[in-house]
Amino acid sequence: MDLTRASLLREMLTGTELGSRTTEFAHSLRRFTTRTGGLMLFGPADDEPWHLTAHLDDELHRAGVEDIRPSLVRWAPPPDAPPHLAIGLDRLQDAGRGESLLVVAEENPAETLLERISDVRRRGTTIFSIGNGDQELTSLSHETLVPELLVPDGFGWTSRRIELEFDHDEPQTAVPLTDLEPQAAEGFEMAQHLVSLAAADADAGQPGWRRRLRAAIERLSGEPA
Fold first, then answer.
1. What percent of the chain has pLDDT over 70?
2. What are phi and psi of 7, to 5 degrees?
3. Contacts of 126 (CB under 8 A, 6+ apart)
4. Residue 114 and residue 52: Cα distance in Å, rounded?
5. In terms of pTM, does the model score above 0.90?
6. Cα separation of 65 and 86, whole Å?
7. Distance between CA atoms of residues 219 and 225, nearest Å
8. Confidence class of residue 156 from pLDDT cuts 50, 70 and 90?
9. How far apart (Å, rounded) are the C-alpha atoms in residues 43 and 113?
10. Alpha carbon 148 to chain centroid distance?
């Protein structure tokens, strides 16, 4: 899913629980990552979160946010891996306060993964997770996102076509969402795209009360604050 399609999807989901929760999750990720280079992504050895790492890096770079560009922590990077793909488990031993570990695990995490997460948490690192609701991972996480519980009917697990709504006075050149994305939009992947977009929001690093105040001003004035 490219940037245009992901942005369209996010706009469509404005006001839904999925749209709201992914935005809150991403903003918390920005807010609690206060050390430069302190955002780490981690996952199962056989399903490392390359996808989300790449999208987060692209969106943060595009937004000019360079201090928390993400790093992918790998279980066993090959010796000839380029620097950004050569970060191994030693990085977790150096983690501490002001840093965040974002765990992405679509399946139930193995005990070895949970042990690593627990060690990092004890060092004061904030744990975020995107998972399937696994109880152990949830208990280790300061904040967790379970896409399967949030995806609206028609996205990902049903075959119903989702028609985009248009102003009838405008030319209808767009096509149904199922045609925009040839494969059915899976909720887990969808949530990752939404998180990466929301992490680059201009107000993502602001305290919650500042964002709510800004939103209230915009609603009253009709203009961006």
1. 76
2. -65, -40
3. 32, 33, 99, 100, 101, 142, 143
4. 20
5. no
6. 22
7. 9
8. very low
9. 7
10. 14
pLDDT score at 208: 53
Please list the alpha-helical segments (H only) found in 70-206. Answer: 90-93, 111-122, 135-140, 177-180, 187-199
Tell me, what amino acid is at 167? D
Query: Tokens 């201090």 correspond to what residue?
Result: 67
In the block, residue with structure tokens 């380029």: 82
Averaged pLDDT, 44-64:
95
Other residues' Cβ atoms within 10 Å of the Cβ of residue 98: 14
Region 61-82: mean pLDDT is 95
Residue 75's nearest CA partner among 50, 49, 44, 110 is: 44
Query: 35, exposed or middle or buried, with CB in 10 Å at 0-12, 13-18, 19+?
Result: middle
Do 200 and 63 form a contact (C-beta atoms < 8 A)? yes
CA distance 117 to 38: 15
